[in-house]
Amino acid sequence: MRRLVLFTVLASTVLSTAAWADNTSSATAYSIAVGGTPVEALVDSGTPLVVPPTDRWYTTHVSRGRSYCAETQAGVRFDPTTVTGPEVNDTVVWIYQADATTLIVSNDGVSGEEPAARSLSRACFRSTLPDGSQIFIKVTSDKGAFYTRMRIVDTTRYSDWFFIAGDYNAFTLIRSTVNFNILYTVEWRDMNGAIVGTATGTLAPHGGVVVDARTFVTGATAGTVQIAHDRAESAIVASTTVLSGTTGLSFDAPFATRQPW
Questions:
Q1: Can you give the pLDDT at residue 109?
Q2: Does domain 22-154 have CATH number 3.40.1180.10?
Q3: DSSP H helices in the chain
Q4: pTM score
C-alpha cells in the first residue's frame, strides 16, 4: 500500500511538472494551430539586473508559397497590476525558422497601418520554406508586464478557376484596402495542383492592379489561382474574370481566405 501511494504521488508530481511547464523558451514552446483560437499569456519586459524578461514562445508549421500573419492583442484581462495608458501594452512579435534563431520577420507596432492597433504588433510574411516547415513565434514586451493574446492566420487568398483556352482571357484583379505598400505574389496552378505561372509585384496604398494569366501561364489552359502577400489578412480583395471576346461569355471567380481548421 505504501509503495502504491508513493508511486501515485511521484506520478502526480511528474505530470503536474509537465503540465505546468512554461513556454518561456523555444524548447518549451506551445503548439498553436494556424487559424486557431488566440492564445493568452503574461509577458514582462523585466528589470535590468533584477528581474529577467518573460517572453512567450509558440510553434506551428507553414507551407511554401502561402502567407501568414502573427498578431497580438493586449488589454485582455482586468489586471490590477498593469499600468494603463495608450503606450504601455507594447508588444514585439518575432518569427523564426525551425532552428529558433534564423529570423524570418519581426514587428514592433502597427501604428498607422490598417487594420490599426496602437503599440501592438503584426508580423506578416510569405513563406519560401518547404511544405510542412516548422516555425517559432516569440512574443515579447517592450514596456512592463501585461497579458496579451496572440494568433496566427493564413492570409493567402484562393480562387477556384481560370481558363485561357481559345480566345478566352483570365484577368486577376487585385485591390489594396490599406494605406501601406503590399508585396504580392500570384500563382496559377493546373488542375493537378502544379504551379504553371507566377507573377510578383507591389500594390500602392489603396491601389489596384490587373494581371493577365496569358502573360505568365505556360503548359496549362485551366486551373486555379492563389495570392500571397505581406500585409494583414484583409489587406487585399481580388477576383479573377474569365471572358471571351468573340462569344461575349464572361464569369467571375472571387478569391477567399481559407477558414480555420
A1: 75
A2: no
A3: 2-19, 213-216
A4: 0.85
How far apart CA 229 and CA 31 sit, in angstroms, is 24
C-alpha cell at 186: 500570384
Please give the DSSP secondary-structure letter assigned to residue 19.
H
Residue 226 near residue 197, CB atoms below 8 Å: no
Q: What is the pLDDT of residue 8?
A: 41
What residues of the chain score a pLDDT lower than 50? 1-19, 86
**Which amino acid is it at 248?**
G
Q: Distance between CA 167 and CA 214 in Å, rounded? A: 10
Whole-angstrom distance, CA of residue 33 vs CA of residue 41: 16
β-strand 256-257 against 67-74: which pairing, if any? unpaired
| The pairing of beta strand 157-163 with beta strand 256-257 | antiparallel
Level-2 CATH architecture, domain 157-257? Sandwich (2.60)
Question: Could you state, in order of their start, the residue ranges of all structural domains in the chain?
Answer: 22-154, 157-257
108: buried, middle or exposed (CB in 10 Å: 19+, 13-18, 0-12)? middle
- Going by their DSSP bridges, the two strands 30-31 and 56-62 should be labelled as parallel
Angstrom CA distances, 223 to 70, 141, 164, 233, stand at 30, 45, 9, 24
Gap between the Cα atoms of 210 and 122, Å rounded: 27
71: which strand partners? Answer: 122, 151
pLDDT for residue 166: 93
Q: Which three cell numbers stand for residue 81?
A: 497590476
Helices (H) and strands (E) in the chain, counts: 2, 18
